[in-house]
Automatic annotation (TrEMBL):
Pfam families in the record: Cupin_6 (PF12852), HTH_18 (PF12833)
Keywords recorded for this protein, A-Z: DNA-binding, Plasmid, Transcription, Transcription regulation
The protein, known as: AraC family transcriptional regulator
An example molecular function term from Gene Ontology annotations: DNA-binding transcription factor activity
Residue ranges occupied by any HTH araC/xylS-type domain in the UniProt entry: 215-313
Amino acid sequence: MEVRPFADGDPLSDILTLAGSRCAVSGRLEAGGNWALRFPPPGMIKFIAIMTGNGWLAVDGIDEPRHLDTGDVVMLGAERPFRLGSDLDLPAVDGAVAFAAAAGDPAQGDRVTVGNGAEFLAVGGHVTLDPIRGHLLRDVLPPLIHVRSGAPEAPAMRWLLDQLGVELAGGRPGTTLVAAQLAQMLFVQIIRAHLATSGPLGHGWAGALRDPRLVPALRLMHGDPGRPWQLGELARASGMSRTVFAVRFKAAAGVGPLTYLLNWRMRLAERELCCGTTPVSALALSLGYMSESAFSNAFKRTFGMAPSLYRNRHAATGPSARRSGLRGGAHDDLVDVDIGRLVDGKSDGTGDGVRRNPKRVA
């Protein structure tokens, strides 16, 4: 039995899935003339896509307002209030109240009109995260990501925005689902765009994925986590010496590459123990351990209990729970369990009992 999240390794998809990211379109804003709206902290990750026109955005704690043009997309953190308008010096109307009133009016639906409503159109949405795993994503994102219409990723985003506009205007069956799927793709494109820039991200998976020299090694570890990877193999894949690679990886991720791999294996094990039926002995072998006892010791160091006890305490029920969690990627459902220290820059210790090639030293 093999443990393969994806054939070629896709760390970002793995993390987004574990974080439980789900997107939905929450409303539209039509505005014209002179206008300004203020919003409280959204309480979840929020995105705003500018479909037509231009305006200004100010986020609490960020010095300079951002000018938004047609085709721009912004993503906002959950904890900061913000203002949106044609002129931010104007007295701002409470946007949350306006959208709440629109939601109670069948004639308006999810649309709010400010002023003549003829010059500016924006679509807003939000991203919900798993209450346990969501910190994997939430903690590494900055309070504001602004992807401009002229960015290299803009053509793909423009296509998504065009399709989103068609869906929202058509009123066809399935619009809510299709719009949510388009929003999910838009969300991934925003993160891709941010990774491609010099924008700040935290340590752990995000810091490593941000460094293109480290990505080949990440893809190997995520693509085949059960293989007994050696430091030299991972370094060669990244085109560096072992020492330079190890230092660079730890500086970016907060842990060394083999500790990162150990942590990732533990997360895959945790998912399978909660969601699947693979015997512990087979699970240990699939994750590269020499014996069930070696695997059990490594798991206990991470989660504080033996794998069998963890399974008994956290095993879910229902059809989705009966599917194997070994894939670990976008094809799996999520269960709400504490994943502890998922590749977040914290060490799980040494002496992991993983199978190694005796002729090669990591």
